[in-house]
């Protein structure tokens, strides 16, 4: 089955530690996205990538970093510089030339203790 | 710049009653519009989308939405609510012909269905 996988589902880290969230897709999509979701704030875009080896900052990129070395993979690192990292993180992808509908992974809930 | 406003962060209906979730958008070019549903601790699932053509679009689970350009609205409706409809719903917009494929989401509406 084609889709987007995110691992792990739940992640706990101590304050001050960097943590990397995994996102893999087998939909052959060109573009991939990372969103942060907090209660009552909807989805906020962290980073996005339209092609391999290229990515752009979204609305709340500070304290986060990404890489796009393979078309299928778009990992997100939450660094110690992120002031309030506890949140639900969603990865999405879409194909170029379409109607821009995005397909979402199941999400990773990060809790920083 | 594009934006989305969802009126009502929380809507409560009785089982069998009409569901109406409101979405207004702002876009400088003809928009593509989407409704997504999210169940607790899960990702978002596409309910329906408007791109071009017929302004009344039908989606999964009996939902439909009507694009009204004059009102810049894309409200989501379902004639009869079911307990399984309880979830959070997000409206989203993107610019047709845009090159960065970015979606702008509303803040969401939590739908509660009472027995």
Brief sketch in words of this structure:
Chain A is an all-beta fold and 113 residues long.
Descriptive overview:
The complex is a heterodimer of chains A (113) and B (115). Chain A has no helices and eleven strands. Chain A is mostly beta strands. In chain A, the strands form two sheets. In chain A, strands 2, 4, 5, 6, 9, 10 and 11 form a seven-stranded mixed beta sheet that branches. In chain A, strands 1-3-8-7 form a four-stranded antiparallel beta sheet, with no helix packed on it. The termini of chain A are far apart. With 115 residues, chain B is mainly β. Chain B has strands at residues 3-7, 10-14, 19-26, 31-38, 44-50, 56-58, 64-68, 73-78, 87-95, 104-105, 109-114. The mean pLDDT of chain B is 93. The interface between A and B is medium-sized, with 27 and 23 residues.
Structural class designation of chain A: mainly beta
Low-confidence stretches of chain A: none
Quaternary organisation: heterodimer
User: Helical content of chain A, roughly?
Assistant: under 10%
Radius of gyration of chain B (CA) equals 14 Å
Number of strands of chain A: 11
Which residues of chain B sit in consecutive blocks of at least 5 with pLDDT less than 50? none
Helix/strand order of chain B, N-terminal first: EEEEEEEEEEE
What value does the average pLDDT of chain A take?
92
Largest sheet of chain A: 7 strands, mixed
Number of strands of chain B: 11
Q: How far apart lie the N and C ends of chain A?
A: 36 Å
Number of helices of chain A: 0
What is the helix/strand order of chain A?
EEEEEEEEEEE
Which protein chains make the most extensive interface, counting residues with beta carbons within 8 Å of the other chain's beta carbons?
A-B, 27 and 23 residues
Strand content of chain A: over 45%
Globally, the shape of chain A reads globular
> What's the rounded overall pLDDT mean of chain B?
93
The number of helical runs of chain B is 0
State the helicity of chain B in percent bands.
Answer: under 10%
């Amino acid at each position: 089955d084609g889709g987007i996988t995110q691992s792990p589902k739940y992640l706990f880290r101590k304050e001050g530690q960097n943590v990397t969230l995994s996102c893999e897709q087998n939909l052959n999509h060109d573009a991939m996205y990372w969103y942060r979701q907090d209660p009552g704030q909807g989805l906020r875009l962290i980073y996005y990538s339209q092609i391999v080896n290229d990515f752009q900052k979204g609305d709340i990129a500070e304290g986060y970093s990404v890489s796009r070395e393979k078309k299928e993979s778009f990992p997100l690192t939450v660094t110690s510089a992120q002031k309030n990292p506890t949140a639900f993180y969603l990865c999405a992808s879409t194909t170029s030339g379409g109607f821009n509908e995005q397909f979402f992974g199941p999400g990773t809930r990060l809790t920083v203790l | 710049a594009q934006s989305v406003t969802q009126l009502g962060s929380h809507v409560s209906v009785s089982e069998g009653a009409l569901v109406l979730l409101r979405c207004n958008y702002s876009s400088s070019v003809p928009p593509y519009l989407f409704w997504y549903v999210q169940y607790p601790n899960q990702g978002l699932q596409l309910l329906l989308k408007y791109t071009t053509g017929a302004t009344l679009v039908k989606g999964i689970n009996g939902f439909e939405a009507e694009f009204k350009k004059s009102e810049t609205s894309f409200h989501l409706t379902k004639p009869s609510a079911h307990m399984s409809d309880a979830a959070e719903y997000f409206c989203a917009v993107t610019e047709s012909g845009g090159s960065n494929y970015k979606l702008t989401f509303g803040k969401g509406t939590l739908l509660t269905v009472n027995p």
